[in-house]
Write the structure tokens for this entry.
Amino acid sequence: MIKKIWNSPVWSGVIVAIIVGIPTAIAKLVSLIKNETFQNSWDYLVSFKFPIIYFVFILVSVLLLIRIILWIREKYYSDEYLSSSERLLQRKFHKFHDKTDDVTLKWRVAFDEFDEPYADNLRFFCCKHGPTPIKFIDNRCTVANCPNALKQIDPLYLKNIVDSELIHRWQLIQEGRLKK
Ligand SMILES: [Zn+2]
């Protein structure tokens, strides 16, 4: 686990920032309070007999905290931890076909920290060109002269519609009105 965190450029950066940043911040604070130069405060701090065991304890606590944060993130963002009703919503409502424009919307059902569903990775496909739906680029179909290539869709507007529908259906599932 430590190796994994250390290999991650972000987390190793955070740890280095903590190890270097905390003594620097303390030295700066001491220099302000005692009205001394930063160099004097830094020397004072370095000469200070800070028991190594406290340092190890703080380091372990920080690593443990990082692990807990990662665990909570995994719990909320990974499909593995979804409950049966969350899976039901995911299975029942992960795409929608708009017959008027022959466009299919696909997404992954995700849940935020308040257990509210939202559409993650929402994509649009044009279904006017044979059995394979063609993925939109720049909010339009990529096939020349296709009616869906001549106009652009509004992804934020559509995402809000899908999110609203997900919230509505989630409510129905929780009230027991939408079953398997
Ligand atoms: Zn098209």
The helical segments are 2-7, 9-33, 38-47, 52-77, 84-92, 147-150, 155-174. Residues 84-174 form one domain.
